[in-house]
Each structure stands twice: as structure tokens, then as C-alpha cells.
Amino acid sequence: MNRADDTLAVEIWKGGTDGRLAAFEVPLRANQTVLDVVTWVQRHRDPALAYRFACRVGMCGSCAMTVNGKPRWTCRTHVAKVAVERHLTIEPLRNLPVIKDLACDMTVFFEKWQAARGRFEGRTTRHDEVVQLAPDTPARVAIDAGIECINCAVCYAACDVVAWKPDYLGPAALNRAWTLQNDTRDAGQEARLAAVAGDAGCHNCHSLQGCVAHCPKALNPTAAIAGLKRAVFRAALSGDL
Questions:
Q1: Does domain 3-104 have CATH number 3.10.20.30?
Q2: What is the pLDDT of residues 91-145, one digit of tens each?
Q3: Domains of the chain: which residue ranges?
Q4: Among 4, 117, 119, 141, which is 20 to 30 Å from 13 by CA?
Q5: So what CATH class is 107-237?
Q6: Crossing angle (nearest 10°) for helices 189-196 and 171-181
Q7: Hey, do 3-104 and 107-237 end up sharing a CATH topology, with the first three levels equal?
Q8: What is the pLDDT of residue 123?
Q9: What digits encode the pLDDT tens for the residues 169-226?
Q10: Cα–Cα distance between 41 and 81 in angstroms, integer?
């Protein structure tokens, strides 16, 4: 095997928002992930390289980055599937402020989660009987379709509407709002609908489905947002909004 066959040309974003791409030559290995590549660079070429990771097995979502122009979990992305002519370009997630190198500031992402009232508001106390929600009800089925989101922000980075309209709540926050809107144990439906019906809410979604195409959990935030649109419309017609 010659040198060209056992190395990978990698460009990695360095600096803040106004940074640049830095070039590295990385050994090519079988079953190598993009996170393996970033880790090799940090350990052998650039000890100051900033990036995030935790579980390495697709459970936490903290290693999300932009790989050859697409947001991905780097721990579950194999180099062999995404490298183009033995070349990778690795950048921070789009639509988020860059702290340093590949590490983004997630504050605005989680603030939008709160703005969409993506928190459970119970109707009962610990002294009441546990409320059961049958698994085969339409509401529970709707919840199950979106409940596996782990807040990795891949969908947020893939969303062109967020890029055009930075105050848009985004697919992750609206998906969470939809799951709670279907939970009959939750007491915050009215306030939540009002929160997602505003100028930055669900009606800004253009149904481009970038979130669907890139979600590592194979969720469909576009469908959840469509459900919110219908719920907001019904509430407006009934005078509840």
C-alpha cells in the first residue's frame, strides 16, 4: 500500500466564527469514524483543538459536527461512507455561535426549547394516583413518534429556516412541544400553543424537511410541526388563541 492509500486529507475548522480551515494528514484505518479522525488530530497534531464528545456510541449527541457540508454525529459516521477521494472537511454545526474550533455555544438552542415551553407541567401531585396513558391511543402514538430526541442539534443545524430567520424556534423545540401537546397528563397545552403560534413559531416552517433528512434518530420533526400548525388553527377557530 502506498502513502496515498493509507492517509486521509482532512481540513478542520480552527478559531471562532471568523476562523479558517487547517489541513492535516491523518492515517486511514479500517472502520474509522470521523470522531476517531478528530481525536487523532487532537492527540498527535493539534493538542489545542476544541471539540465535544462523551459516549462515543450515539447516545449523547454531543459530538455533532458538520462533515463535508452535512450535520452528523461523528461517533457514528464512518469515514469510508463520507470521505470524498480520501478527503474530509470537518466544521462546527451551522446556525450556532462558535466558541472555538468545533465547539459551539448551545445556549440559544436550549433557550428556544424553553421558549416553546418544552417542559412537562403536571396536573397532579405525588399524593394523587398515577395517571395511565394507554400505549395504543392516538395521542400516545404521536408522542412515541417524536420522543427519542436527544437534543444533539443536528436538525437545528440542518434547518434552512433557522439560517434565514434566526429567531425561529427550530425543529427540535417544536418537536418537543408537539409531544407534550399530546400528553393528556400535561397542564400546559394552552400556554404552549400560544408560545408556538407566534412570529418565531410553527408557521415559519417551510416543510423543506432538512431536519427529517439529517436526524440521526430517524425522527420526523416536520410532521410534528404540521401537527402543531393544525392544533394552532383549531384553537384560533374556537377562540382559544
A1: yes
A2: 999 999 999 999 999 999 999 999 999 999 988 888 988 888 788 899 889 999 9
A3: 3-104, 107-237
A4: 4
A5: mainly alpha
A6: 150
A7: no
A8: 86
A9: 999 999 999 999 999 889 999 999 999 999 999 999 999 999 999 999 999 999 999 9
A10: 20
Length of the chain: 241
The C-alpha angle 70, 75, 79, rounded to 5 degrees, equals 65
List strands edge to edge, sheet with 7-14.
Answer: 20-27, 7-14, 87-91, 64-67, 70-73
Mean pLDDT (whole number) for 44-60 = 95
What is the residue-wise DSSP string for the chain?
A: --GGGSEEEEEEEESSTT-EEEEEEEE--TT-BHHHHHHHHHHHT-TT-----S-SSSSS-TTEEEETTEEEETTS-BHHHH-SSSEEEEEPPTTS-EEETTEE--HHHHHHHHHTT-S--BSS-TTSPPPP--TTSHHHHHHHTTTT-----HHHHH-HHHHH-TT---HHHHHHHHHHHT-TTBS-HHHHHHHHTSTTSGGG-----HHHHH-TT---HHHHHHHHHHHHHHHHHTT--
